[in-house]
Structure formats: C-alpha cells, structure tokens
Amino acid sequence: MMNLDSKFLYERWKTARKMFRTTAAAIPPGQEGFRPAEGTMSLGEIVLHVTSVEKTAVDALSATRSAWEWDQGFTLERYPTLDRILAALDEQTEATGAYLSGLTDADLARTVRLPWGAEWSLGQLWLEWMDHEAHHRGSLVTSLRVAGVTPPNIWE
Fold first, then answer.
1. Which pTM was predicted?
2. Nearest C-alpha neighbor of 34 from the set 85, 70, 109, 69
C-alpha cells in the first residue's frame, strides 16, 4: 500500500464529512423515521449509523484502546428529531476530527487488527471508513429522493 499523508487524510475526511452533514441536514423535520422500503434504514437511522460506527472506531483506536463496542445507543428512540440527530453527528465529528488531526504518517502505517479478524494499516482503515460513509451518503440521497426531497448540491 502507498504511504498515506496524515494531513491529506484529515483534510479529505473533513470534506467528506461536510458533504455528509449537508446531505443529512436536508432531512425534513418529522421525516426522520421515513423508510424508502421495508427492511431499509430510515433517513435518521442512516445518519445515526454513521455516527455510531465512527464512535466505535475512534473509541477502539484511541489512546484508551477500548473494545470495539458496536452498540453506542444511537437510536431514533434516543435521537428522535433532526436537531438531536445532527447534534450527535456534530459531536462525533468534533471527536473524530480531534483524533484524526493528531495522527502522524507513522501512525497511519501502523497495523491494526479489526474485530472481524482482518489486519489493515490504520490509514487503510480510515480510507475504507470514508468509502463506508460515501456509501451511506448515497443511500441518504436516494432515500431523500424517494421521500420527495431534492438533495442539496454538495459539490459547490
């Protein structure tokens, strides 16, 4: 794998998060529970899923080295409104930004063992994370369209 520059990774993550946050903010209040089809995540659940998984990763990989605890309590029951969902995302964005901005190029080359047994460099993990978030941004865009909402232009 190529050597990954920590400052580039951090800046790329900030751009991806801004696009996700802008898309999430387009959820109409009162439509947080809208599901485009049976068995899919609702609009609000998509945002809370991204928030929860990211918290899990940052907590597990931070200096405290906690376990990969997947149930972070980010549910629509606890975060029922768009304001609360966005506040949770913003809080996690701040925590992840602090974590990522402190990583060095050497940190990104370090091997980490993931809960499913794979071993990746820390840099690869965060690149894969941004792919995961982009996937859910696409799901959110599609779900917004099904809900009759024109997604915001995130490319300006």
1. 0.94
2. 85
